[in-house]
Amino acid sequence: MTQPPEFETTNIEILSPAELNETDQDSGYSLFDVTGSVVSGAFGLMRFTTETAVHLAIETSRAAINASLDAVVPPTVNAIISRVDLTELVVKNVDIDALVARASIDPILDRIPMTEIADYVIEEIDLPVLVRQSTGGVADDLLSLVRFQAIETDNFVSGLVDRVMLRRKRRHRDINGGDDDARETDSL
Amino acid sequence: MTSFSQFRRNYVAGEGVHFVSIPERARGIQGEGSGFTSRFISVLFDMGLVAVGIIGVYWLWQGLRYVLSFLYDVPNIEGVPLLFLGYLLMWLYWAWAWAIGGKSLGNQLMGLRVQRIGGEPLGVRKAAVRSLFSVFFPIGLGWVLISKKNRSVQDIVLRTEVVFDWKPLIPREL
Q1: Chain B contacts to A (CB-CB under 8 A)
Q2: What is the pTM of this model?
Q3: For a surface tag, which of A104, A120, B55, B86 has the fewest beta carbons within 10 Å of its beta carbon?
Q4: What is the ipTM of this complex?
Q5: Is the Cα dihedral A138, B34, B172, B135 positive or negative?
């Protein structure tokens, strides 16, 4: 065992309980202590009250302002907008081309019925007439001419026979219904 | 002029657009019984075709005879056998043409179609019988002039009719 190190010794007075009582003879709460406590408590209470009051006031006024804005703003804005030509405003101030250029075209095109449009265009421009006029035009017209002439001859001949046979209801093929030429020049 | 929205309202998907390539003046008479002149021209045209064919066959045969004359004595076909060949060809041609779509070339020219009364196609047997009838009794066509419903003798006997049909021919399978 090594020697325990030597400490600097200090004298510590150890007091008996009785002595202790003697020394604390005039402790308990001094007036100063009590006043401090009361003041700090009052200060805390004041702070709490103030904070609560301020908070409540803020919330209440916020709600009140919101409610009054809800009540006032829409009619006001309506009243303003109704006096302004928004379209004119937009047309004047907004670069619509730039706006449209930003929009993505694909979803729009997806909603467009392409086939129907194609069919519509084909029908509307009367493609058969165009084809007939451009390519097989001459031959087809000649064919139609021959057929129509035969039909006219038929009408004449059968009309004659019907008349001779004193028929009331005569055979007649009506080929003057539509005006083909007028229609064809119309559509061009 | 229909607007696109009008068009869409009436548009039945998958059905496509119906194009009518028939001139407007002729649209009203489609399906009506045709008269004598149209049918006569049509018959003349078909007969002319067969005649040209027969003349072609005749000259081919003559050429063949000439080539082979050094080796064989090929018989000459003239007169009645040639006429018979013509009848045969006419019969076969009309039977075939009417069976596959009711339109011979002459019929196509004049825009006619041979069909059963009511619109059903002729069928092979009826086409063959009608063709035979027409080949040996062409005079029967004359009844069209008198018949109220533009029927020839063949039509009356076989319950067929010839109507205007200017649509292009779509041949059917036999």
Answers
A1: 1-2, 4, 7-8, 11, 16-17, 19-21, 23-29, 32, 34-38, 41, 109-111, 145-146, 148, 150, 164, 166
A2: 0.58
A3: A104
A4: 0.79
A5: negative
